[in-house]
Amino acid sequence: MINWDAHACLPQHPQADFTPVQRLHAAGVNYVSLNVGGDMNPISQVMSVIAGYRATIDSDPDRYVLISSVDDVIQAAADGRIAISFDLEGAMPLLDQPEMIALYAQLGVRQIHFAYNRNNNVADGCHDLPRGLTPLGYSMVNAVNDAGILMDCSHTGRLCSLDIMAASSQPVIFSHANPYALVQHGRNVTDEQIRACAATGGVVCVSGLSWFLGKEHPGVDDVARHAAYVADLVGVSHAGIGLDICFQQPGLDDTPPGDFDPGYWWPASAGYSASRPPTFTPPEVWRQLAAALRKVGMTDSETELVMGRNMMRVAQQVWSKPQALLKAA
């Protein structure tokens, strides 16, 4: 069985400690997508992070492997290594150039969403005014499909996400999002969005973040309950896991340079509070997840789908798209 964590965050710094990745691996995770930046990060920071992460991975080949295919993930698991690729949270690091997407693919980015909570020239954020996907955004969707990158709609506005899912020729995922029907938070996704995602052949991966699970200190049963909701609504083939654990490293400042305003990206009007930061399920939740999913009524084969096989299926379809540029990575 392959356990697939669709999204996690280390410090946005080239010297980030990879010990949390080792914890995920020890808990049974075979693949993790690491965020390398988003709309609040200038491209200089994003590129520095990618370079630093790649150097760390390259320096310990017995433990880590940067992958570009599902076959690489399977081989890494057989070798006792954890498979890693990168994701971008927002289109601003693309500099309004669809051609940037293939470049990021060469550097190890295997999934991307277009807006982080706020609107930009490509797409709408979930905490901003609804406009829908922009003309540039449609070009970006085509470029993501052509590059063989997973099209993600986490953090994206409801209307805009529906536009993206309608425009994409490949399955679309939510790498870390939870059902709005269970917790009414603007970052969570409605039944309409979940159904649209399933209609593309995609997967909604449940986050382990306290704000989105509606629990101050969420645990494995909360994650299982949200995954079960998705499975009951659209079928177990469309539920997955992306715990979105944000690991901090004391003494390492990854604050975006320049005029960075946390209140803009996480507005109080949407329920965020600097005095009440989020908590996360620990990596060790992965050890308990199969039992928790069985507890909510899933069979052994269904738990395997949710814990990894669903995302493997989608990644196999998207990543296997012939693309000569990707082979140069």
Automatic annotation (TrEMBL):
Single annotated GO MF: metallodipeptidase activity
Entry EC number(s): 3.4.13.19
UniProt keyword Lipoprotein present: no
Keyword Transcription regulation: no
InterPro entries, per the entry: Pept_M19 (IPR008257)
Keywords, ordered alphabetically: Dipeptidase, Hydrolase, Protease
Single GO biological process annotation from the record: proteolysis
Protein name: Dipeptidase
